[in-house]
Amino acid sequence: MSRDRRSSSFACAAAVFTLLIVSTSWAQAPGPLNAITDVPGIEVGHFPPPSSDPTSPPPITGTTVVVSRAGAVGGVSQRGGAPGTRETDLLRPENLVEKVNAVVLSGGSAYGLAAADGVMLCLEAQGVGFPVGGGHVVPIVPSAILFDPGRCAAFSVRPDASFGQAACQAAKGGPVQQGNVGAGAGARSGGSKGGLGTASTVLSNGIIVGAIVAVNSSGRTFDTAGNFFAGFIELDNEFPLIGPSSTDVVPPSNLLQNTTIAVVATSASLTKAQATKVAQMADDGLARAIKPSHGVGDGDTIFVMATGTDTRDATNLVNGIGSAAADTLSRAVVHAILAATVGDCRVQSYCQQFPQNCPK
Amino acid sequence: MKASVVCVVVLVALSSAASPAWAQVPGPNNAITDVPGIKVGHFTGNPLTGTTVVIAEKNGQGVAGGVSQRGGAPGTRETDLLKPENMVQIVNAITLSGGSAYGLAAASGVMQCLEGQGVGFPVGGGNVVPIVPSAILFDPGRCGAPFTYRPNASFGLAACSAAQSGPVQEGNVGAGAGAVSGGVKGGLGTASVVLDGGVIVGAIVAVNSVGSTFDADGNLYAASLELADEFGNLIPIHGGPPPKMPKPVGVPGGLLRNTTIAVVATNVELTKTQATKIAQMADDGLARAIKPTHTPFDGDTVFAVGTGRISMASFGDPAVGEYVIGSAAADTLSRAVVHAILSAQSTACEKSYCDLFPNACRNRKKGAQK
Questions:
Q1: More confident residue, B234 or A145
Q2: Strand, helix or coil for residue B91
């Protein structure tokens, strides 16, 4: 117990020291919602929708869509070893189309790529997309999936185009539901319940960075004592943790059937090349929050959407934005694990294993 | 006298050394289906658009695949998965489709079709996830068609269900149905070649290029790659009406309007890395058959698969095998482009090459039956 306290005060001192170093160049605070929707123009929709009835069974798979109706300059970092993706070639800096209208994160393994079909139809009906003449548009909708089929239901239960259509129609600004929703509904993480999380950061220069992530990792997000690897990146006491304690942790689940997928959004004006760089730096946020990450069976994929409402030239801001993106993504991972609740049929949530770390 | 004999001997020796040490003849169908383990299915819509599926298998399992994605306006699925460092080592099918990015939905139908047959990457419990990379081309709204008429999952399901070995229909079918190419009607084409040692290479392509496949006189750039009079003894034409040269820049709504997409296949066993190299070399076949190609407005994408009937060890050094197969894949893809253009039929909106240059095609009807 006393050793725990000592180690936690040491961790606290280390965190303060780290923050002092990191924050000398730019102060950081969460946005008002501490969600990716703090970035102006970013909307989020989940399907199935969050249930208001606590007795209803939780969803077992789902789709989350991040929408930028005005279009956001896109980039991607795809470093996991078992990806399932759409339209990532389009995002390479040398290719023509610069702006994406939405990014779809979905369960269902590669079958779940069908959700993006529905998002495209939804956005087309709203006139949102890349103009191709005659008033017609082709919505630009990159997508990545995670593996969750067959965990708590028949293998054939998976997101299809209707999931994407419904998630797109539900997209809005404002608070974002976390935990067992959308693409995180069926997620697992290192033997515990995974889920969906979000976070945001306002830099001292006014640029806003937000992240949303569906954590379905082979690796863990916390050590055997319940300490989150990314706990030290906390801003403003956003993680309601009391203190770590030892307990048995269930071993990691099937190592070859995972994937963590995320979107980072920023109000900055980035080129595609800069957005790609920010995606690469943001990916380090996964590395700090999940051990191991980018494994053979993880299709880890990070998208960036730069909405450009902050019109400053970002040439000298990319480093700060990328650093903030990594930290914001790490925090979103912790939020996902803290918000995950019991409901998955065979694994416990973090808060079930460490209830003292999750005060009501 | 003596000198000229020596000269001839040297020339013969040189030419046999310089020319490939492998004979080249088209396969029996001059189609990608000449590669054992390859099946092709089309579904053609009305108005003209459609989907073409290439299914690849060895002993009921998928085979190694690679991709070269060099066009500037691509629409793709599952190309990250094909990177050599990534885990999944097989593909079960490649989907080529019209419909711009909307047409990526066709691959969802192909996945349903293959799952119904138990074909896919095994994920435990007898379940499979079919691995179906895909690329699309831009054809919506052409020739008065409603912009919203486009391939969806049902196109992929139908094309997959129709997949078979044997002859492959060309021209205004499948992914090439709505295609245009440098001001004339584009289309779908296929070709194959049989090399020494029983090595077979096939290609299938939907030609929907900004660039043209022929010069202002109507000479097809890739005509010299003809094998066995397959193009019907094309006759160079002089003085025919010059083709309308495309103007991709500055035309309202002229962006994102093209893309040539292809699959090459061989019966040789490939790793993902080798398949990637062969896709890259095959891509040069587009460069030789289409000018310009890989432009900002083309999403040109070439997939490669190896169905594993012959060991790469038959080449000794695997790099030699990649060289031989990659070279043949490029030529075969160029020839498939010519077949696509020669097989295309005029529509109310675009003339076919053969209607624009009837002189050039005058021997084709009797000379190029497949």
A1: A145
A2: strand
Q: Which residues of A346-360 are buried (b: 16+ CB within 10 A; e: fewer)?
A: ebbbbbebbeebbee
What pLDDT does A359 receive?
74
Nearest CA of chain A to the CA of B203: how many Å? 22
Residue of B nearest to A79 (CA): B86
Interface test with A, best of B70, B77, B137, B261 (most A CBs within 10 A): B77
Q: Which secondary structure element, helix H or strand E, spans residue B15, and what is its range? A: helix B2-18
Residue B251 neighbours by CB distance under 10 Å: 11
Chain CA centroid to CA B281, Å: 13
Of A6-10, A193-197, A230-234, B229-233, which has the strongest mean pLDDT? A193-197
In order, the DSSP letters of B132-190 are: --EEE---TTGGG--TT----HHHHHHHHHT-BSS----BSSGGGTT-EETTEE-EEEE
Residues 6+ apart with CB under 8 A from B272: B64, B65, B66, B82, B83, B84, B89
Is A97 at the interface with chain B, CB within 8 A?
yes
Q: Could you report the predicted ipTM of this complex, rounded to two decimals?
A: 0.81
User: Which amino acid would we find at residue A77?
Assistant: S
Distance from CA of B107 to the nearest CA of A (A): 8
A-B CB pairs within 8 A amount to: 137
Mean pLDDT of B216-221: 87
Whether residues B79 and A85 touch (CB distance < 8 A) is answered with yes
Mutate to test the interface with A, among B83, B85, B87, B154 (most CBs of A within 10 A): B87
Statement: the pTM of the whole predicted model exceeds 0.90: no
- pLDDT-derived band of residue B34, with 50, 70 and 90 as boundaries? very high
Six-digit token string for B10: 């040297």
Give pLDDT, residue B245.
Answer: 52
Residue A210 has pLDDT above 90, yes or no: yes
